[in-house]
Write a structure and sequence with these properties.
Shape: globular
Order of helices and strands: EHEEHEHHEHEHEHEEEHEHEHEEHEHE
Number of domains: 2
CATH topology of the largest domain: DHBP synthase
Structural class: alpha/beta
Bound molecules: adenosine monophosphate, magnesium ion
CATH class of the largest domain: Alpha Beta
CATH superfamily of the largest domain: DHBP synthase
């Protein structure tokens, strides 16, 4: 298949949006930027189109897709009922990086929801994304535009690396703003539950609707408790090299990682390190990459997946990462990092 690139890095282009819309209405696949990560879009109401997403990504068929809309009113058309809490959250955070789970109606095929009676819906805060959704018919199913198991794409180049020749179009809108997937909240039970942490954190949600719990499957130290979002059970974002998180006081962490670099290099291994602008110069040897300043959490979230991809290009055998327990996004950042590390955290 021929993949077309639409360059919108300097601004949205009406003709390109029209071409994307036509592809989507004809059942094709378009990768597009959002404020979280790049998505791989298809018509959510067309089962055959949705099936192409699974094929292109190599995604397990029981892992449901998020349906993206451009108008709040579009929600009523695809769900059985909109609970009051969802209306409040939509008013507070849509358009934005928040996905909510609803009971689906018959318009949404099971091929989009991985066989579930519920559907995940989000309205992205990105002009290109919203115009493309409108042009494509209003309901665009879109998971992250990566090959299953690789880090989510935060640039159009990441999408091309994974999906070139497998999809119809990539809209290049430059680097994304947040870099981590949306927060997912399930409102179908008595108490709202966070199924996946993201930029919209527990405190922000609670300030609007009161008590919100974290899915037990997310907090468990090991992977023995099954998370409620089907996709969260898969080993995601795993870099090729073994990744270990070293957690503790800043100075102690640097000392420990320096020891590990020395030991590794003595054995002839190439060691990767993920540090910050504040610590990078304190490392002796290894290939050190800074994720940004520890005081700028949005920079950290933006860079995480890109750094994991960069290490995949290098012949490192081990990567040691500092922990990034930042105040607002720490939970989301560490959730992704811990999964990438296959739960390997050493406390020092
Ligand atoms: P991705 O779009 O690649 O970020 O993945 C979508 C995530 O949303 C996966 O973790 C899915 O399991 C989750 N998800 C989508 N639909 C539902 C649903 N109806 N119920 C629970 N989780 C869902
Ligand atoms: Mg994904």
């Amino acid at each position: 298949m021929k993949t077309i690139i639409e360059d919108m890095t300097t601004g949205i282009q009406a003709a390109g949006i029209a071409r994307a819309g036509k592809i989507l209405r004809n059942g094709g696949l378009v990768a597009f930027p959002t404020e979280t990560v790049y998505g791989l879009g298809a018509n959510a109401l067309d089962e055959k189109a949705a099936a192409k997403i699974y094929a292109a990504k190599g995604r397990p068929s029981d892992n449901p897709l998020i349906v993206h809309i451009a108008e709040t009113e579009a929600l009523e058309e695809i769900v059985v009922q909109v609970p009051e809490a969802a209306r409040q959250l939509a008013r507070a955070f849509w358009p934005g990086p928040l996905t909510m789970i609803f009971r689906k109606n018959d318009r949404v095929p099971y091929g989009t929801t991985g066989g579930l009676d519920t559907v995940a819906v989000r309205m992205p805060d990105h002009e290109i994304a919203r115009e493309m959704i409108r042009a494509g018919g209003g309901y665009i199913a879109a998971p992250s535009a990566n090959t299953s198991g690789r880090p989510s794409p935060t640039t159009a180049a990441h999408v091309a690396d994974d999906l070139w020749g497998r999809i119809d179009m990539i809209i290049d809108g430059g680097s994304v703003g947040i870099g981590l997937e949306s927060t997912i909240v399930d409102l179908s039970g008595e108490t709202p539950v966070i199924l996946r942490p993201g930029y919209i954190n527990q405190e922000m949600l609670q300030s609007v609707i009161g008590t919100v719990e974290m899915d037990k499957g997310l907090i468990a130290a090991d992977s023995s408790v099954r998370p409620k979002a089907p996709g969260m059970k898969y080993k995601h974002y795993a870099p090729k090299a073994e990744l270990v998180i070293i957690e503790g006081k800043a100075g102690t962490v640097v000392d420990k990682i320096n020891k590990l670099i020395a030991e590794g290099e003595k054995k002839g291994e190439m060691i990767g390190v993920i540090g910050t602008d504040e610590t990078r110069d304190a490392y002796r040897g290894g290939i050190v990459k800074s994720i940004g300043s520890i005081h700028e959490e949005l920079t950290i979230s933006q860079h995480l997946y890109g750094i994991l991809r960069e290490f995949d290009e290098l012949a490192v055998t081990k990567i040691y990462s500092e922990a990034f327990d930042t105040p607002k996004m720490g939970q989301a950042i560490m959730n992704r990092l811990i999964k990438a590390a296959g739960h390997q955290i050493w406390k020092v």
